[in-house]
Write a structure and sequence with these properties.
Strand order of the largest sheet of chain B: 1-2
Number of strands of chain A: 4
Helix content of chain B: over 70%
Number of domains of chain B: 1
Structural class of chain A: mainly alpha
Radius of gyration of chain B: 21 Å
Strand content of chain B: under 5%
Strand order of the largest sheet of chain A: 1-2
Oligomer: heterodimer
Helix content of chain A: over 70%
Order of helices and strands of chain A: HHEEHHHHHHHHEEHHHHHHHHH
Number of helices of chain B: 19
Distance between the termini of chain B: 39 Å
Strand content of chain A: under 5%
Number of strands of chain B: 2
Shape of chain B: globular
Number of helices of chain A: 19
């Protein structure tokens, strides 16, 4: 790895620094104490990551794929970091959410994380960031597994870092399923190595088409798909997610909901199209086999969300549904569909992070997020609840919000497939209607029931409101002008599908 | 100011009004002044666009492009112009009435009431001027959401239940049926624009055309075609000014306005008149208007009776448009204006009776005409206009729709319309007749009955709208000439 020396070129080494800086920063963070120093340090590092990913995206859009050779060892022997339009976009999402969520985390963690654990909390946060950036940027299959473990282990710590004892079982639950998923992915990597002798993804994608019908490759495809589905919480492998989000501290829910599953979806895209694009099962491409699960995911997810009493759990179930939308796009297997999937990565990150932030703010003031705690919140916390309504509209998919852009793109993609498309469209509409119901339950309680007589009007602190409103504005900004997001997503999709190259 | 700016002003003036109302909430007199001022400015603005449209101009302004090929844009054509004028003008009258009603009843949270009202008007303006299906859909939803707090205004359990029905049906139909219909149209034609002569011709035929029409007609829940009319009676828990302007004018008329827009500018009259699979709509509308009249007869609650009467009258408009001939469409468009004036008068009177006498049930209103002579007389004018008796506005539009039915070869429909007018007589006329002919139950023989009218602000509004019913009878030919160009491309 390149180190700071006389001839060090910052720009040329940016792909490595994108991951190395938070990785090295994490252990440093342990030595900081108090509630401000670790936080400020983590924020600083996140800002660097954001700058790095923004620069990388610009450079990729201008000059095309960047291939970075770790330590100067050329692939396929050495480890390659490959940045293209697909993962540069995901890198940006992950580091952006980290930057937006950290100021919020500072305000929420004071209440939800014991003071003597703050430095560990931010250390785990940085490690989690490292892992997710690493999974995204690396061009090496085994490297994916390594970074997956880094992000998973730190996620277990983050989920369990709050005061709620139920978080421990939720974290353990996730640990068991997450390890299972990681193991599956490792088996997949091993199988691929056994038949091709290489771990480099670009190299693999060149060799695999010739042997696409061989048993080990099929088995590897299966292991990869199931392993990633577990990490991405795709139905029916979603069991860890509702409790994991509901009982973790709210900044963790914000961070994970907006990034962790997104990175898994990115991985799914990579695996389905770059690696196993030519693998087919019967007459279906591998990606198509995901479609039924994705459809069930958004119907079941939305339906379950309606019946939740804990509003963080409700949002978690809604996430399962939203993951279903993304995978539906992937499952359609067309450029339009994949575009819809990728653009929804970004759009859903915006709205779900905003919604979980509202939950954290309510938790801070009301001490809980069961539906009954929202009584009169429209008057007690008007700004927070307004943000909830706005982000909720986006979740439903009302025009002028990002949710509409995603759904519109998805429906157009579905309709291209003919009669199946009508069925998928009907399912999407049904799921949107269910979203109306579960968002409206909160709105009705918050605005049309009176608060307890002595409950004061107590808005969330500014540190929470500013990030919240940044995201809400984003929900509308990119919903009104989708040129940037949709354009990048389409470029990425075309590149994944091997069109225009 | 250019016409393009004026179009945007029609959307933003009520919005600015909403903000100002919110800011001046602490001083009720100032707040009401803001409402009246905004309504007046808005009406003047809308009226001054009229000459441009009458000269054949179709001013258009595209605001922004949400996605490639998916712009948010406004374009004014005669029908939208008429709808905007109705809503903008009646907003002034209704604001005067609201002041009397809300203060007379000492209602809670009046600031929220006036603010949401302004927002709803902004939504109605957007619906009227929408240049494509997507823009129309957006403002249609703004109208739905902004009126929900008005429906649940009283915050009682009953109001909440009514509000839930209201919102549930309108949102479910619009997202579940209307949006898919819009997407389907876009998928077939590659455009969402309203174009004279329609965009669907050549793209759909046979059963598909009928099915797509059904998605639209039941998706436009605000038009209250049975069986999705339930939200309208449920919305009657709202304070009467809301029922008057929103559920006799802005909301329901936005529904039937959208119906006409879709039939004229999306399907095209050629397609509707030549494609037999779209004929079902004529019968569905005929069934709705007859059944709703029959149900109205059984209602003892005055506002509920008026609500079912509205359901019935809305189907006149749908029927007129569904005939697919020029005469029918013009009649349907005209009926939007005529029924608006008549029905708002009726609702105003119902509210006035509630404020002054605290009566809501028709059986309690015996002899009320002698206590509230002005109100009852105006009620009678409104009722006669809705029934369609000359010299009142409603007579022209009903005649035109019947002529249209004859043109289109639906002779049976003439019978249905005549029967329905008789039913209108049966459920509307007993109210003023019993009011004037009987003595009030408490009054002693031989003594004159003490007059106790509603607040003056209410009376002013009632008198204005009743006069309007008469004026519209004489202005009908102008409306006819204005609306005739929209039927270009019709098989007449």
């Amino acid at each position: 790895m390149a180190t700071a020396s006389a001839g060090f070129d910052l720009m040329a080494n940016l792909p490595a620094l994108q991951v190395a800086v938070p990785l090295i920063a994490a252990p440093v963070c342990i030595f900081l104490r108090g509630r401000n120093a670790p936080w400020a340090f983590a924020l600083l590092i996140s800002l660097f990551c954001l700058w790095a990913s923004w620069t990388l995206l610009q450079s990729v859009l201008a000059d095309g794929r960047i291939s970075y050779h770790m330590g100067g060892w050329a692939p396929p022997v050495g480890i390659e970091y490959a940045v293209d339009k697909v993962n540069a976009f995901v890198l940006l999402i992950v580091s952006m959410i980290s930057v937006i969520a950290l100021p919020y985390a500072r305000a929420a963690a004071v209440r939800e994380v014991p003071l003597d654990k703050h430095h560990l909390f931010y250390t785990a946060w940085l490690l989690c960031l490292t892992g997710m950036l690493g999974i995204t940027i690396t061009g090496d299959a085994f490297n994916i597994f390594v970074f997956l473990e880094i992000s998973s282990l730190s996620t277990y710590v983050l989920i369990a870092s709050g005061r709620d004892p139920r978080a421990l079982t939720a974290s353990f639950n996730y640990l068991v399923l997450g390890t299972l998923g990681a193991t599956f992915i490792l088996i997949g990597v091993g199988l691929l190595y056994s038949v091709t002798g290489t771990l480099n993804i670009a190299d693999l994608s060149n060799r695999l088409p010739e042997i696409a019908d061989r048993r080990p490759v099929l088995a590897a495809a299966g292991f990869f798909t199931v392993g990633i589905a577990l990490k991405a919480a795709l139905f029916p492998a979603h069991f860890w997610l509702p409790n994991g989000y509901a009982y973790s501290p709210s900044p963790v829910a914000v961070f994970l909901s907006a990034t962790a599953t997104k990175v898994s979806i990115y991985l799914l895209l990579r695996v389905q199209f770059t690696l196993f694009g030519d693998v087919s099962i019967g007459e279906f491409a591998l990606a198509n086999t995901l479609l039924p699960f994705a459809l069930i995911a958004f119907i079941v997810g939305s339906a379950a969300a309606i019946f939740q009493q804990d509003m963080k759990r409700m949002l978690a179930w809604s996430s399962i549904a939203q993951i279903g939308y993304m995978v539906t796009g992937i499952g359609l297997g067309s450029v339009e569909g994949v575009t819809a999937g990728i653009v929804h990565l970004f759009n859903h990150a915006l709205m779900k992070a905003a919604l979980f932030m509202c939950m954290g703010a309510v938790f801070l003031r009301a001490g809980g997020v069961r539906l009954i705690r929202f009584e009169g919140m429209g008057r007690r916390m008007p700004l927070t609840m307004f943000a909830f309504v706005m982000a909720g509209l986006s979740l439903i998919g009302v025009p002028l919000t990002v949710g509409f852009v995603s759904k519109w793109q998805l429906v157009l993609a579905a309709l291209q497939t003919g009669p199946t498309g009508y069925f998928i469209t009907a399912m999407i509409m049904a799921s949107s209607l269910m979203a109306v119901i579960y968002v409206w339950r909160v709105v009705e309680v918050a605005y049309f029931r009176d608060p307890e007589p002595d409950a004061p009007r107590q808005e969330a602190p500014l540190m929470m409101l500013v990030p919240m409103y940044l995201l809400v504005i984003g929900c509308f900004w990119f919903g009104i002008d989708s040129e940037f997001t949709l354009g990048v997503a389409r470029d990425a999709a075309e590149q994944l599908m091997g069109i225009g190259q | 100011m250019t016409v393009e700016t004026q179009i945007l002003a029609a959307i933003f003036v009520p919005l600015a009004g909403m903000v100002l109302i919110g800011l001046t909430g602490r001083w009720p007199n100032l707040r009401e002044a803001v409402t009246l001022l905004t309504a007046t400015v808005n009406a003047i603005n809308v009226w001054t666009i009229l000459p441009v449209v009458l000269d054949g101009g179709r001013p258009m302004v595209a605001v922004l492009e949400i996605m490639p090929g998916l712009p948010l844009k406004f374009e004014i054509e005669p029908l939208g112009m008429m709808f905007a004028i109705i809503a903008a003008t009646l907003w002034i009258v209704n604001s005067i009435y609201s002041i009397g009603y809300m203060r007379g009843n000492k209602e809670i949270r009046q600031t929220r009431f006036y603010a949401c009202f302004a927002l709803a008007i902004s939504g109605a303006m957007g619906v009227a001027f929408a240049g494509n299906l997507l823009t129309l859909f957006i403002f249609y939803e703004v109208l739905t959401l902004s009126t929900y707090p008005l429906v649940t205004h009283k915050e009682t359990e009953e109001a909440r239940r009514g509000g839930r029905t209201y919102l549930g049906i309108l949102i479910a139909t619009s997202i579940g049926l209307q949006l898919p219909a819009i997407i389907w149209t876009y998928n077939l034609t590659g455009t969402m624009d309203f174009q004279p002569g329609g965009i669907l011709i050549g793209h759909v035929q046979g059963l598909t055309a009928g099915l797509l029409l059904a998605l639209y007609m039941y998706g436009i829940g605000k038009a209250a075609l049975m069986p999705i009319h339930r939200w309208l009676p449920a919305a009657m828990v709202a304070p009467t000014p809301v029922s008057a302007l929103l559920h006799a004018v802005a909301v329901v008329k936005a529904g039937v306005f959208t119906v006409i827009k879709v039939i004229v500018y999306v399907f095209g009259l050629d397609l509707i008149s030549t494609e037999p699979s779209t004929n079902w709509l004529v019968y569905a509308a005929a069934i709705t208007l007859t059944l709703a009249s029959l149900i109205a007869m059984q209602q003892d609650n005055l506002k509920r009776r008026l609500a079912y009467s509205t359901v019935s009258q809305l189907s006149y408009v749908i029927l007129g448009a569904a005939l697919g001939v020029a005469m029918g469409v013009v009649g349907a468009g005209m009926h939007i204006a005529m029924h608006a004036a008549g029905k708002i008068t009726l609702f105003f009177c119902a509210g006035a009776i509630y404020v002054a006498a605290h009566k809501t049930e028709i059986s309690d209103m015996k002899g009320l005409g002698r206590v509230m002579p002005v109100t009852m007389f105006c009620f009678m004018i409104g009722a006669l206009s809705v029934i369609g008796v000359p010299p009142l506005g409603g007579s022209w539009s009903k005649t035109l729709i019947m002529l249209g039915a004859a043109d289109a070869g639906f002779q049976l429909m003439i019978g249905v319309l005549i029967l329905s007018s008789l039913l209108n007589v049966a459920y509307l006329m007993p109210i003023p007749l019993r009011g004037f002919l009987f003595r009030p139950p408490g009054a002693k023989d031989g003594e004159p009955v003490k007059i106790h009218e509603a607040p003056v602000a209410c009376l002013i509004a009632i008198v204005i709208t009743s006069i309007l019913c008469v004026v519209l009878f004489f202005a009908a030919d102008h409306i006819h000439d204005m609306l005739l160009p929209i039927t270009v491309g019709a098989a007449s």
